[in-house]
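User: Reviewer 2 asked us to show a designed sequence for the structure in our supplementary figure. I'm pasting the structure tokens here. Could you produce the per-position amino acids so we can include them in the response letter?
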């Protein structure tokens, strides 16, 4: 190796015009005519498998019929009544594994109804009216703290406010949105949609936002339960797992989560530094998002190294194919052994793996790849607040979202289950209904039950 080495991480690898083209909307919105044509393909199944596949139980045949009859506003109401973040979910949900994967058209023809794009059309149409479609019930006098302004916390806060409770919404960051604002690929949510959706959601009133306040730093669980009638935790996963390989302290080794967050908050993407040769360690959505966006910023080679086979990757097959079509190499059955360089990263040594039936093991066979930037995307961790029981690395909850601590509920990525925006929304919404029932003695809502007409304006 050379005595000195200048890292190959640099800005302005591509012109601003090319960057803008690369980060354009992944799935452009349907216009009214396109939406009508797409809606016409729906069979409006009575026992619709797409509804069963939706974690928020949106009545998909109903909203598609509403679009087909020229009632896109009503379609938006149908969606948002079940999933108040339906606009973002339309953009980021793995529909190929959920509603569209279950579509009868997919089984019969290999081409499902475009449910995700139809959902975006309906929610965008309604939100463009700039008036909130849901009103608040009379004030109950109860106060609830919601910690974490990500999808679970936002969904919980909105439903509680709709039920007439006063909500204080805390978040560790300086702006709300959580994963939707800081953790997804920029080409999936363009034109500041994440913040626009939060602003729209807060129009219901009754929600006081307190940014820059974190549990364990500025807030304690004991303090919150003493001040509020109930507490909901939607704190996500703030920590990052350590990479078990030599040389992880070298310059150029970064957390993929931080890279994606910086990219989402950048005013000028062309000025964001990226390596010439990038290696991403991991197999989930964060790994894929970091890899694809590195390519879009101008990295010449990008490799995703995953310790198991592609069938075991957390990222969906659609996302894997999106990565490879963007020029990303997916190297399966390879785990990091050492990161090499003279102060900064120059190479990464990987070891091939195999599972002989007794667990994953290194084979001893290695390869080296040039790398001036290495992203760690091997999962995140949670620091458990005092008084809460753990379920593995997450907060233990029951079917209603109740934790082991009295008057404390939780949902989203900090609890067991799939780490998906739509799942977090369902958990936050359903916990809010249980909180409402507990505080008021109201009949306990069935999980996933639709809001009543009385809750609408």
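Assistant: Here is a per-position design you can include in the supplement:
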């Amino acid at each position: 190796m050379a005595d000195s080495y200048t890292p190959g991480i640099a800005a302005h690898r591509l012109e601003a015009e090319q960057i803008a083209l690369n980060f354009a909307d992944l799935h452009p919105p349907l216009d009214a005519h396109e939406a009508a044509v797409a809606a016409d393909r729906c069979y409006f199944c009575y026992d619709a498998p797409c509804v069963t596949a939706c974690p928020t139980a949106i009545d998909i045949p109903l909203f598609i019929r509403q679009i087909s009859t020229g009632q896109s506003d009503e379609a938006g109401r149908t969606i948002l009544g079940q999933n108040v973040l339906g606009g973002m979910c339309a953009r980021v949900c793995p529909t190929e594994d959920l509603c569209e994967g279950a579509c009868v058209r997919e089984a019969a023809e290999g081409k499902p109804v475009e449910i995700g794009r139809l959902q975006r059309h309906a929610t965008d149409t309604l939100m463009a009216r700039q008036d909130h479609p849901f009103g608040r019930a009379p004030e109950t006098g109860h106060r609830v703290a919601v910690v974490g302004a990500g999808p679970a916390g936002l969904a919980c806060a909105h439903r509680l406010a709709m039920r007439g409770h006063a909500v204080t919404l805390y978040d560790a960051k300086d702006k709300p949105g959580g994963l939707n604002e800081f953790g997804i690929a920029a080409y999936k949510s363009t034109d500041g949609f994440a913040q626009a959706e939060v602003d729209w959601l807060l129009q219901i009133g009754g929600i006081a936002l307190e940014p820059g306040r974190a549990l364990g730093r500025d807030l304690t669980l004991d303090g919150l339960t003493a001040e509020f009638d109930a507490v909901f935790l939607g704190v996500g996963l703030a920590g990052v797992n350590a990479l078990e390989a030599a040389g992880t302290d070298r310059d150029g080794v970064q957390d993929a989560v931080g890279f994606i967050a910086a990219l989402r908050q950048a005013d000028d993407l062309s000025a964001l530094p990226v390596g010439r040769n990038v290696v991403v360690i991991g197999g989930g959505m964060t790994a894929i998002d970091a890899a694809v966006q590195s390519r879009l910023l101008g990295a010449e080679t990008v490799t995703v190294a995953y310790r198991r086979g592609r069938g075991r990757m957390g990222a969906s097959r659609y996302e894997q194919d999106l990565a490879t079509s963007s020029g990303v190499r997916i190297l399966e059955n390879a785990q990091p052994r050492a990161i090499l360089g003279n102060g900064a990263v120059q190479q990464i040594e990987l070891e091939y793996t195999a599972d002989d039936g007794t667990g994953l093991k290194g084979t001893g066979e290695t390869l080296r790849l040039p790398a001036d930037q290495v992203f760690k995307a091997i999962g995140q961790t949670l620091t458990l607040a005092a008084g809460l029981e753990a379920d593995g690395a997450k907060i233990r909850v029951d079917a209603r979202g109740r934790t082991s601590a009295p008057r404390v509920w939780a949902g989203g990525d900090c609890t067991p289950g799939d780490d998906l925006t739509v799942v977090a929304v369902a958990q936050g919404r359903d916990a809010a209904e249980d909180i409402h029932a507990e505080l008021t003695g109201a009949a306990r809502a069935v999980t996933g039950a639709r809001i009543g007409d009385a809750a609408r304006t």
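For the response letter, you might also mention the following. DSSP finds 17 helices and 17 strands in the chain. Residues 1-6, 452-457 have pLDDT under 50 and may be disordered.
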